[in-house]
Specification:
Blueprint lengths: L1 H11 L9 E4 L5 H5 L3 H6 L1 H14 L3 E4 L10 H4 L4 E3 L7 E3 L22 H16 L7 E5 L1 H9 L1 H10 L1 H25 L5 E5 L8 H18 L4 E6 L7 H4 L6 E4 L5 H8 L4 E6 L10 H15 L5 E5 L9 H13 L3
Parallel strand pairs: 1-2, 5-6, 6-7, 7-8, 8-9, 9-10
Antiparallel strand pairs: 3-4
Helix pairs in contact: 6-9, 7-8, 7-9, 8-9, 9-10, 13-14
Length: 344
């Protein structure tokens, strides 16, 4: 596992390891179903969580799991700290209900405290306890995560009010996003501080892909950049699987190392537009192929991605998004086989 992680880090820094790493974002949408347990049990019983995540290392020794041993409650940790209402389900992650759709309600809100607010303290405590168990096995947790400012804002007052506010009340939205960004930075630091030897962060924010280049540059970029600047020196992964080729050049300036992006954008185009500034993590369709395709189809697409983007380094083979619910293990094996057989 350490060798694969080292390959991932080298590729993340635009290097060309001897073997292109296969790295997959995996969390509660897929893992309980993969393990055939109730999603509620995955959250409630830490020993179940530990067993399932440890089992991934045995079943898929050639895959880097991002972030790996992720303590999460779907997308709920960050919005719960601001009072978002959660709905818990037996067969999928918690869903979230926005609190108040009037954005003026959120003017003057204070940053959340990761040590006391919402689900965040439970996440921190589980990291603290679970890593001690992992260290007894010679393992440690290498990466922590947060949803990004646009995504968190959308769970507080809704996607439509957020998008309308960017146009009609940009200064109000800017203040709210600034507060959320401060919370995200505190949240990531709090998680990192609980771990013995963390090496990376991941920020997930698909909503960014829904804005125009002008709106991104004026109202969004500074918040993303502030987050990634804060963690300079760590491996910084940005996940956004909304098709957003209109933003690629601008996103390359946000100071992250690895970009996990939509399968709907051709990986060769992404490489051309972003240049050799960020590593690319993709780009096999997670649902159309990852879930519905055959291993042969997955492997063929993976080889195509490798041939287009692996030369010169900075390539990490993955799905163009997280591992979707009901993804068969054989289709993950196909990604590993593609790396072993592709010529590039």
């Amino acid at each position: 596992m350490s060798d694969r992680w080292d390959d991932f880090k080298k590729a993340a820094k635009l290097g060309e390891p001897e073997r292109v790493p296969v790295a997959l974002i995996v969390d509660s949408p897929w893992l309980p179903g993969y393990a055939r347990i109730d999603t509620r049990d995955y959250f409630l019983f830490p020993d179940q969580w530990l067993k399932i995540n440890m089992g991934l290392l045995e079943r898929f020794p050639d895959v880097v799991w991002i972030p790996g041993f992720w303590v999460e409650y779907g997308m709920a940790a960050e919005p719960s700290a601001f009072g978002a209402k959660l709905h818990v389900h037996r067969d999928r992650p918690p869903s979230i209900e926005p609190v108040v759709d009037d954005i003026n309600h959120w003017v003057g809100i204070k940053p959340a405290d990761p040590q006391e607010d919402g689900l965040m303290p439970f996440v921190l405590r589980l990291y603290e306890v679970m890593e001690k168990k992992l260290q007894a096995e010679g393992l440690n947790i290498k990466m922590v995560c947060s949803r990004g400012p646009m995504t968190v804002a959308s769970w507080l007052f809704g996607v439509t009010p957020l998008m309308m506010g960017l146009v009609e009340q940009p200064e109000v939205i800017d203040g709210i996003l600034d507060t959320i960004t401060t919370t995200i930075i505190r949240w990531l630091h709090a998680q990192l501080d609980t771990l013995s030897a963390p090496e990376g962060i991941m920020v997930l924010d698909d909503l960014v892909g829904m804005v125009s280049p002008r709106t991104y540059e004026k109202q969004i970029h500074k918040h993303l950049r502030r987050i990634f600047d804060e963690f300079d020196g760590l491996v910084r992964v940005y996940h956004n699987d909304t098709p957003c080729k209109h933003l690629l050049e601008k996103l390359a300036e946000a100071n992250f190392d690895v970009f996990n992006f939509s399968h709907e954008v051709d990986i060769a185009e992404v490489k051309a537009k972003m240049g050799h500034r960020v590593a690319l993590m993709g780009n096999v369709a997670p649902l159309g192929l990852g879930v519905r395709g055959t291993p042969e189809q997955v492997k063929a697409k993976a080889i195509e991605c490798l041939e287009k983007a692996a030369p010169g380094g900075g390539m990490i083979l993955s799905f163009g998004g997280g591992v979707s619910m009901e993804t068969p293990p054989e289709n993950i094996d196909a990604l590993v086989e593609a790396v072993a057989t592709a010529k590039y």
